[in-house]
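Q: I'm writing up a methods section and want to include an example of the input and output format. Could you take the sequence below and give the corresponding predicted structure tokens, formatted cleanly so I can copy it straight into the document?
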Amino acid sequence: LDMEDELKNLPEKSVPTKDDFDFASFITEKIDSKIDLLKSVIQQRNLLGSVPSEEKFVILIDIVNFSKNDSRTQFADIVIFQKYMRSFIFSRNFSFEKRIRIENFIPTGDGCYIIAEKCDAVLAVDFLITMISGFQNLLDFQNEPMGIRCSALIGECIPFIDLAFHKNYVGDGMNEASRILAYGQKFLEDEYIEKGNSELEAKNFSKNSLFLGKSLFADLDFSDVDKNRVSEIHSLKDVVDKHGKIRDVVVLRGIKKYR
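A: Here is the clean output for your methods example:
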């Protein structure tokens, strides 16, 4: 489509109003023709400034070594993972109820995003340590304690309806959670390898760890972190991603089994 020419020739009465706009999906109810597609383009252009961006508590969880397993093992491990998450989040004994307000879970294949309302940093980290420690009470399909890595921050998210008609999110918060986890893990493991340890030892070293973005750790006094729950605290300076963006990351490494 020659969009620019078509848009210039589009009658004024075809331009939707704000009331016609679906903030969640960014499209008209249906697109059966070229004119419907052009309407959706106009909607986005006219109303982009009104997109409902919000600050959210964003969590990303990855199951360690998930992709190295065969399909049946992956299936069994994701069932175990989901069963624990449902139990932890929806249990009547969930001590964080009404304080951590979770809005959505977004599966990633080898884990998930959790999107929650912005909350106090101390409460957020207490929630995350408790969640991660509980995984070590689980045995995976190979009868080993299930290892995970997790990142978290407060960041900008924009809701939309995805191709499966589920509520989803895009935005800096989602991207930064992924980068903090991937590049924070690499930075931590590279430092450990430089001390003479093997790659396998480095992978085990970073298991069951929580990688925090500055939007969370800036307001925390880590001297108050219970040493019975966390093995070590690492402050990683100048963690660089593939785009050259630099950030600091704090890692609560080796979160211990819940007793």
